[in-house]
Recover the amino acids of this structure.
RNA sequence: CGGGGCGUAGCGCAGCCUGGUAGCGCGACGGUUUUGGGUACCGUAGGCCGUAGGUUCGAAUCCUAUCGCCCCGACCA
């Protein structure tokens, strides 16, 4: 993408509405525009990152054998009356009446609807296990939205629902989600720690939240610092292997890590003092096993192998897709701007032309552009005639992890400069070598 | 929902107390200059001062109502 043809309304000054760093940078980098309290338009740069995150979530869901579908944002109130949550949910639920005076709501989650889909189509244990998920906009009418997309009213969320014939299978589904989530967050360049959590309005007693450590986090967290060293990495996990999956979960959940809701002072104090840590975290996902809470209330049953009929065992699992942008920025930035992890960056690399209009530099940039495109790496090429400082500042702000700088001085020696946004380290090399290096970096992402 | 604050140009703000026909910086646009970390100068465009009502000869300014937004707390993915 050529910057001269793109839509990237960056701001030099910080709009007064933004307090925390991710919100400021998202506004300044032209990623979002607020339309009402807690409701945002996603401008092209922000939309690209949102789509990247969505793609990673989809890919990891597919790897775990989960099946995508799409449920509507608007739901009939009657469905929620069946589970009793129409009254329980309170003011946070946005209620709407249509022209026929039918009561509707903008869905804050989808347990009722998925249970309805299940009960009208699944009768036998032979159709289980089943995991259905979607990535859809939700609405929770927060009293006080804040922190930009981290606590919006409208938000994009992946929510998945598992259906199993018995408790053991359901717990495997729970574990499978934990492992797939760990992999999902790692691909986004995040360390998200599973912490034992309280269940809230979804219900159920087996639940973990995934927290990204950041000083601006909304939750106080207590953990053994050894937990931050755990990495799933490239290890091969067979998601159907109950034992293997359970083992990974055990590895990640044995060390102490809890939110303030479930914190136990005695257990915490048993950790060696130098590994005891109290910090803040941003919740980026949560998994629940809640058994038959909804299936019983809504009559979602299956016939088992012995011919009896039982309510299906369920769990639900969520990833805050839009909120992840904020969480990633909180965890990865400096005083110049955002530093995108390679996995989610809107563009893999930026090209800065230091002397726009100079025949040789223009040609070198064009050649670089074409070579990167040929590798499937779409660069953002700053072909404006701003001066160097302005271009660098803009690139730093929007946070592309790699930048190739092309100027007459280096070109005279056949060199361009490849710079890491994260370390600031620059290396001179031939354009061909730069393309090869960038391709190599992204080969593993 | 309790407490506090703010709505004036795309963004950041001044003007309001003490009414007299709206200003600064950045940005945008046009030029000249410059060109390896937000360059300098000259010029141009852009605002029913959130909205409605009231007081007044006259309202961005005073009064009332209303809408919106932000911050602290409570709550929450």
């Amino acid at each position: 993408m050529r910057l001269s043809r793109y839509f990237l309304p960056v701001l030099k000054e910080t709009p007064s509405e933004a307090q925390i760093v991710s919100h400021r940078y998202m506004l300044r980098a032209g990623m979002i525009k607020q339309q009402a309290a807690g409701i945002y338009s996603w401008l092209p740069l922000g939309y690209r990152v949102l789509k990247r995150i969505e793609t990673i979530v989809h890919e990891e869901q597919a790897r775990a054998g989960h099946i995508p579908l799409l449920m509507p944002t608007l739901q009939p109130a009657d469905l929620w009356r069946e589970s009793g949550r129409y009254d329980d949910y309170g003011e946070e639920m946005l209620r709407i009446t249509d022209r026929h005076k039918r009561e509707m709501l903008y869905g804050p989650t989808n347990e009722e609807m998925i249970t309805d889909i299940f009960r009208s189509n699944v009768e036998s244990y032979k159709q289980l296990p089943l995991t259905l998920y979607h990535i859809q906009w939700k609405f929770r009418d927060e009293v006080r939205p804040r922190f930009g997309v981290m606590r919006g009213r409208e938000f994009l969320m992946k929510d998945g629902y598992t259906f199993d014939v018995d408790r053991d299978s359901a717990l495997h589904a729970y574990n499978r989600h934990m492992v797939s989530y760990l992999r999902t967050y790692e691909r986004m360049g995040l360390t998200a720690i599973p912490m034992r959590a309280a269940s809230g309005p979804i219900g159920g007693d087996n639940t973990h939240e995934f927290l990204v450590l950041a000083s601006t986090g909304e939750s106080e967290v207590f953990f053994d610092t050894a937990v931050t060293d755990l990495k799933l990495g490239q290890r091969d996990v067979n998601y159907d292997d109950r034992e293997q999956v359970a083992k990974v979960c055990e590895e990640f959940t044995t060390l102490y890590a809890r939110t303030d809701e479930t914190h136990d002072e005695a257990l915490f104090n048993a950790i060696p003092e130098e590994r005891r840590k109290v910090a803040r975290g941003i919740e980026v996902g949560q998994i629940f096993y809640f058994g038959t809470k909804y299936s019983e209330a809504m009559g979602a049953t299956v016939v088992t192998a012995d011919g009896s009929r039982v309510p299906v065992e369920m769990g639900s699992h969520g990833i805050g897709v839009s909120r992840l942008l904020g969480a990633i920025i909180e965890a990865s930035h400096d005083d110049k701007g955002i530093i995108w992890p390679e996995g989610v960056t809107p563009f893999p690399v930026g090209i800065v032309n230091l002397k726009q209009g100079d025949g040789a530099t223009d040609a070198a940039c064009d050649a670089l552009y074409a070579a990167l495109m040929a590798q499937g790496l779409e660069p953002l090429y700053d072909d404006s005639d701003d001066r160097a400082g302005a271009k660098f500042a803009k690139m730093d702000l929007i946070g592309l992890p790699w930048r190739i700088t092309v100027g007459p001085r280096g070109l005279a020696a056949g060199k361009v400069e490849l710079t890491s946004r994260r370390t600031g380290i620059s290396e001179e090399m031939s354009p061909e070598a730069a393309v090869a290096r960038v391709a190599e970096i992204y080969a593993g992402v």
User: Anything to note?
Assistant: The mean pLDDT of chain A is 93. Chain A has two domains: 3-338, 349-443.
